[in-house]
């Protein structure tokens, strides 16, 4: 009864309420109702309906802080960015790939291909795998992109570069070059311009913000190969989210004078 009262208090829009029971069960709502914000509730409702998630899958998504990680990634996106809000997360949790403590970029790539279905579940709905080590010839030189995906919902290619260690500004120049090549030679009629994601084991968030990579269609995100204990994980995500919100607020204050 308490949950039913919560539902009635929290979902007042009849058009939304009339559709929800056809898409989600009451078990889904018992997982969603305790969430703190309406934005988080609607995010998980939409993800459940879009992905036909079971209650167990929804609970796992909530426990892995999918909404908060999406919000962290979205703070990189400005109005000048071709990257749609909600496309990426930060960090990505690669504990499902079974990567050991000592690894290299090639090991991450191999693990992703070995556990491609699990990777795409973490990556998000709409992504399909296209090619590994995509070959490009630029000025007579061979270049290779680590991973190439296509997002059916966004109708665009998504280039992914894997980096072990801390993000370096030079990494973005390389990916910008790859995006230009994909746009010129691989983009088909009716598709949107390609976008890119740099996945690194450590990122300098202020450096990334200063580079304004989102304007070039590039996002940077960390990947974690092991999931910390629950309390530690929740604290780390909350700390990152608080810091990114603070930087975003400072950036918005500076906008009128830029």
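^ structure tokens above, recovered residues below v
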């Amino acid at each position: 009864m308490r949950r039913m009262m919560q539902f009635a208090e929290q979902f007042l829009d009849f058009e939304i309420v009339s559709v929800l029971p056809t898409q989600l069960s009451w078990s889904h709502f018992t997982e969603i109702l305790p969430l703190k914000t309406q934005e988080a509730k609607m995010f998980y409702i939409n993800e459940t309906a879009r992905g036909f998630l079971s209650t167990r899958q929804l609970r796992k998504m909530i426990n892995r802080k999918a909404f908060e990680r999406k919000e962290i990634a979205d703070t990189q996106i400005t109005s000048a960015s071709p990257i749609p809000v909600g496309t990426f997360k930060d960090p990505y949790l690669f504990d499902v790939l079974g990567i050991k403590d000592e690894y290299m970029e090639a090991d991450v790539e191999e693990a992703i291909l070995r556990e491609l279905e699990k990777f795409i579940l973490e990556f998000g709905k709409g992504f399909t795998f296209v090619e590994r080590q995509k070959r490009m010839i630029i000025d007579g030189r061979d270049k290779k992109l680590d991973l190439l995906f296509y997002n059916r919902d966004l109708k665009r290619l998504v280039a992914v570069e894997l980096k072990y260690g801390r993000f370096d500004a030079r990494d973005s120049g390389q990916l910008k070059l790859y995006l230009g090549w994909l746009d010129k030679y691989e983009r088909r009629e009716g598709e949107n311009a390609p976008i890119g994601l740099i996945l690194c084991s450590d990122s300098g968030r202020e450096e990334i913000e200063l580079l304004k990579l989102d304007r070039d269609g590039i996002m940077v995100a960390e990947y974690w190969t092991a999931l910390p204990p629950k309390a530690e994980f929740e604290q780390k995500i909350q700390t990152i989210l608080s810091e990114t919100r603070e930087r975003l607020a400072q950036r918005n204050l500076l906008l009128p004078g830029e």
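Residues 23 and 52 are 8 Å apart (CA to CA).
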